[in-house]
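Service request form, structural biology core

Requester: graduate student, group of Dr. S.
Request type: structure prediction, single chain
Budget code: on file
Notes: please return the result as structure tokens.

Sequence provided:
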Amino acid sequence: MNPVHLLQLDRVIHEKVRLAIMSMLAATPELSFTELRETLQLTDGNLTSHIRTLQEAGYLAVTKAYQDSRPLTTCSLTSAGRKAFADYLHHLEQVVHEARSAL
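Core staff response, request fulfilled:
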């Protein structure tokens, strides 16, 4: 198997929680912090850490607002995040294809 595609997987996205966050946001334009936390069954601190990593990479936009006089934090993919996720999926598909061919 040629390791080129495996080595090209984005390490920021590849961590399982961040991959889940990116996948959820690719399917839905925007999700609240609470929706992400409950769906992924994470603590506030753990989710915050992963969101910060994705935000620092430029993949995630975080918006803070108020809804019914309560704070509301939402996350969405940036255009760079959508491109990075599409590239990640492309490389992952190549890895899977090569692994299946080797069986």
